[in-house]
Amino acid sequence: MCKHKKCKKYLKSDKMREIDLSIFFVCLLGAFYYLCDIVTMIIFLDMKRIALLLTLLFAAQTAISAQDIYLMPEFKQGVIYFRGQTPAQGKLNICAVDNTLRYLDKSGKELVANQADNILRVVIDTVAFLHYDDIYYRMYPVSIDMGVALQREVKILRDAKQGAYGTTSQTSSIKSSSTMYVDGVAYSLQEGKECPHEVTESICLYKGDTVFQLTKKNLRKMFPKKKEEIDAWFKAGNTLPKTIPDALSLLRYFRGEE
Question: Who has greater pLDDT, 71 or 168?
Fold first, then answer.
């Protein structure tokens, strides 16, 4: 330290004290900003963890498999019934994403069936499907020409980020049953691949080769001699069935079986 009298006097002056206070406040402000940065980093990391957790949860709920997109768990021997043509046989399945009939050739290659407009019904293993208005409905008969028709639809969420649903390539052909091709996009069905999608099922009615929506109006059409009974059933506070067993019971009731 300087021993000069002027220096000692300057160090004890008010000006020097102001400089000390300025340095103190600058250091304090710097510490405050540093603390803010630390808090921001903690919050940001927590948000990233939360986002990652939500992503993992969403992926777990939307991972797609062959059981999701096909109407049957696996390709099985079946029969295709055409309008005015001889039936055809093969290992069959139906894709619920684009409602197309699929079959395996001798080499195991998956192909889309031609002449879909002429297809009337398809029986795979012991399960029957009615082809109506370009949609395949699973049939739950209560008689030879009447029953419940179930439509299953799988919608791929295309607005998801590319790669989030296992996109592998662009193609217009079908290569194998381990890959789902829709509109030229290949979706991998390998375990662990994620494919955001939605599955909806609609309960309908069928009579002969025609499918109807499950409504009071269509019930009256299917049972023209039971119109008053149907009206009374709804007036009693009953509502349209929400499950296949309940829908079957309702049809059997109006048929006089229950």
Answer: 71
Q: Per the confidence metrics, is the pTM higher than 0.70?
A: no
How far, in Å, CA of 224 to CA of 42, rounded? 70
Q: What is the mean pLDDT of residues 186-208?
A: 71
pLDDT digits (tens, 9 = 90+) for 111-150: 998 778 899 999 999 999 999 999 999 999 999 999 999 9
Euclidean distance between CA atoms 35 and 46, whole angstroms = 17
Q: Terminus-to-terminus CA distance in the chain, angstroms?
A: 110
* Sign of the dihedral defined by the CA atoms of residues 189, 191, 151, 254, in that order: positive
Q: Per the structure block, which two tokens stand in for 188?
A: 């991998």
Strands 185-188 and 167-170 turn out to be antiparallel
Decide if 119 contacts 92 (C-beta within 8 A). Answer: no
Token readout for 195 is 């494919």
134: CB partners within 8 A, 6+ apart: 99, 116
